[in-house]
Amino acid sequence: MVPPPPANKPHVCLSTILIMSSMALMDAYLVEQNQGPRKIGICIMVLVGDVCFLIVLRYVAVWVGAEVRTAKRGYAMILWFLYIFVLEIKVYFIYQNYKADRQSLDAVARKALTLLLSIFVPVLFVILVAIDHMEYVRAFKKREEIRNRLFWVVVDLLDILDIQANLWEPQKKGLPLWAEGLMFFYCYILLLILPCVSLSEISMQGINIVPHKMMLYPILSLVTINVITLFIRGGNMIFYKDMRVSGILMGKNVIAIILKTCSFAQYRRQLQSNAPHSASSCRRTRCPSPSPSPCPRHLRW
């Protein structure tokens, strides 16, 4: 195996502590939800799983810490995918245990689960991006544009987690089984893919990073988050009388649709205005074609 370049040790330690702390808290939920002899078996299983995950994390986190000063975010995408894949499996079993034990109405523990996820998941994404370590982005304005775009990613992550939290928080009337499964795995796929898309946009830009060309994530988030989650919340509020639907996030979705639509229209106009300018500059810089040399006198008719 090729040895990694020198890593940013504080970055590696911080990301590892954050990941393992969230895993340990999810393990505590799983152990506390089981009683008797089954509790010991669950404890052994989660410990073995955490040891295996820590072994893999030891190598991936070092490579992530080695690329924070560059535009590359390949190992950051791998780490994010691995973390969300394992974390959401544990969240799924916690949610199923809450669903099976409907008499357990510990609203504080359920709200605490939502709070923990809404803290750990966005903070890890910000650490993996490490915008303050991108020393090659020297222009303050350009770095602020990137930071503003990443802020929208964090808000979208909170939006997805809010939709997913409706499944385990106490509710008067439960959703149909197919709707719950579809909602959970839809949020699962979004958490896996969309942050990786944002990280890949940074990787593809390289040193000459151009924020206005990072348009793939805004398009995907407009459709998959702002539009579809608006319909999900509206359906829960109208058909299932769910009073826990966040009206603030519904307003956020409406505002985001308006703002992103305006930015797309402005970007399209900018492309159309730049096309004639580039064509005219090409015509001005084009070399003059050589004039045909006259035929010799003795070859003329």
UniProtKB/TrEMBL annotation:
Q: Where are the transmembrane segments?
A: 12-30, 42-62, 74-93, 113-131, 175-194, 214-234
Q: Which UniProt keywords apply?
A: Membrane, Transmembrane, Transmembrane helix
InterPro entries in the record: CECR6/TMEM121, TMEM121
- Domain of life of the source: Eukaryota
Signal peptide (residue range):
none
Q: Where is this region: Disordered?
A: 278-301
Q: Which family does it belong to?
A: Belongs to the TMEM121 family.
- Supply the name of the protein: Transmembrane protein 121
Organism ancestry? Eukaryota, Metazoa, Chordata, Craniata, Vertebrata
